[in-house]
From TrEMBL:
EC number: 3.1.6.6
Xref: InterPro entries: Alkaline_phosphatase_core_sf, GAG-degrading_sulfatase, Sulfatase_N
Signal peptide boundaries: 1-24
Gene3D superfamilies: Alkaline Phosphatase, subunit A
Pfam families documented for this protein: Sulfatase (PF00884)
Organism expressing this protein natively: Bremerella alba
Key words, A-Z: Hydrolase, Signal
Domain called Sulfatase N-terminal: residue spans: 28-369
Tagged with keyword Protein transport: no
Protein name in UniProt: Choline-sulfatase
């Protein structure tokens, strides 16, 4: 909208007694950045030992707020990104969202009281369109919320996981730059919401040649031969295992057995090479974000823009003997989250205890937009402004994309309980961790001398699963009760083997 047109519209609206839309141009912009499959522990501001270089994202962290407790809630689908992106777009909890293409993977989907049929009309793009914002989106195609995605006015979606500018992350960056150039050309001064999504570092992690070289990795394609070791590669994760100690309900999912370059291998050469590929893709994302931020600064828009950086979920890549995103350990259930913008104190951190589904409520709160009536998320603006450290005390997680009931977890304070119910494998397992004492969620298997020799990390005696330790029986019972309460409150359609029906 041009300056002259805005003046005319303002006069007209004032005459009609309507002023809310006339002030839309004074609202801050939103740049929401979402990556695909990225563990928080890849970043130096979460893990000082990481070899990943992301100077642009690191600067966002230094100029804004880092969240130490951000989570994606969970999934009822092996494609974990599907429910995650539905939750982001709608601000609704995991059992209150539709499946992709009506696949009925959410057992509650047929209940319109739990999953509204007209939900796309109340998703991120639609809400901000009605509020007078210009909306633009670029991201991957597939395993997403198509009906919500198309609500954005400008949509440039494509899956880009190659190692060139046209086939990789630079393509997504170009779509945003082209959009900003057009705004500049037409003197459009409306506030904007840009959903800046990437297809990486999700596999296949085909990095650019120069960044693969930097991290000592290759785009490995020979299943019968291991990649060559290279000292430039990232180190082994401290909680690596050669295999997960028990069937966790979905050990045969594609991510665990069929990712090109890894397959079922968990050896040092494979894991370090794959981490190097992931880091090459992540640094390329950082470069593209830098170009967009430079453009916003040149346009004079940067200081009036809230920038949110996050991922749809975390990733294992060797941790706990796992490869994919179908688990509830911290490296996968938790996500990176950095927010920079007006009123946010630089260089701050907060626990937060937020879900990705809280993003919609939060950006509405930050911009003065009315959140939709279907929203179930909680704004974490009070955390961003330093008024609170957390928005909730208890966090719930689910994964049941494989055999049901599958996995559940609950977290309160430093304590975290995980449960696994896999009837066909006769698996009924419980884990209890104090994350302050055992942040890597070490298991008894991590104390094995061969594992220690591989990782170079020797866990302390108390850094293990405490579920069956009688000294923590009361703590376990408290967490068991909390989990069942959260499952009931959130309309989880399943019960675990030791829960009352």
């Amino acid at each position: 909208m041009t300056h002259t047109y805005r003046i005319l519209l303002t006069c007209l609206l004032a005459t009609l007694g309507m002023t809310s839309l006339a002030t839309a141009a004074d609202r801050p912009n939103v740049l929401f950045i979402l990556t695909d499959d990225q563990s928080p522990f890849d970043f130096k501001f979460y893990n000082q030992d990481s070899k990943l270089d992301t100077p642009v994202i690191d600067q966002l962290a230094a100029d804004g707020m880092v969240f130490d407790g951000a989570y994606h809630m969970g999934a009822w689908s092996g494609a974990v990104c599907t429910p995650s992106r539905h939750m982001i777009m709608s601000g609704r909890t995991v059992w209150h969202i539709p499946s992709r293409l009506n696949r009925n993977r959410n057992p509650n989907e047929g209940d319109t009281a739990l999953v509204p049929q007209n939900l796309p009309d109340f998703t991120m793009g639609a809400v901000f369109n009605r509020a007078g914002y210009d909306t633009m989106r670029t991201c991957k195609k597939g395993n997403s919320y198509a009906a919500a995605n198309k609500q954005f006015t400008v949509v440039k979606d494509a899956s880009k996981r190659g190692g060139t500018d046209e086939s990789g992350s630079a393509w997504h960056g170009k779509q945003v730059l082209d959009y900003l150039n057009e705004r500049e050309k037409t003197k459009d001064e409306d506030p904007f919401l840009i959903y800046f999504g990437f297809s990486h570092p999700h596999d296949t992690r085909d990095g650019t040649p120069e960044l693969l070289e930097k991290y000592g990795s290759i785009n490995h394609t020979k299943e019968t031969k291991l990649p060559e070791p290279n000292d430039k590669q990232p180190q082994m994760p401290p909680n690596w295992l050669p295999k997960h100690p028990f069937q966790n309900s979905h050990s045969n999912v594609r991510d665990e057995v069929a990712v090109s370059g890894v397959w079922t291998n968990r050896d040092e050469a494979t894991i370090r090479n794959e981490l190097g590929r992931e880091f090459a893709c992540s640094e390329n994302i950082d470069i593209q974000i830098g170009k967009v931020l430079d453009k916003l600064e040149a346009m004079g828009e940067l200081e009036n823009t809230y920038i949110i950086y996050t991922a749809d979920h975390g990733m294992a890549i060797g941790r706990h003997g796992l490869q994919g995103k179908q688990n509830l350990y911290e490296h996968t259930w938790r996500v990176p989250l950095v927010v920079k913008g007006p009123g946010i104190e630089p260089g701050t951190r907060a626990q937060g205890n937020i879900y990705l589904l809280d993003v919609l409520a939060t950006i509405c709160d930050l911009t003065g937009v009315q959140p939709p009536e279907t929203n179930e998320g909680t704004s974490f603006k009070p955390v961003l402004t330093g008024k609170k450290d957390t928005v909730r005390d208890v966090l719930y997680g689910v994964y049941c994309g494989g055999e049901k009931p599958g996995m559940r977890c609950v977290k309160k304070g430093d304590w975290k309980l995980l449960k696994y119910d896999v009837p066909s494998a006769d698996v009924q397992e419980t884990q209890l961790f104090n994350l302050a004492e055992n942040p890597h969620e070490f298991l008894p298997q991590h104390h094995n001398k061969n594992v220690i020799a591989m990782t170079g990390v020797t866990p302390e005696k108390h850094q293990t699963n405490l579920a069956n330790d009688p000294n923590f029986a009361a703590q376990r019972q408290e967490m068991e009760t909390l989990l069942q309460e959260e499952m009931k409150r959130l309309d989880d359609p399943f019960v675990l083997w030791d829960q009352a029906k």
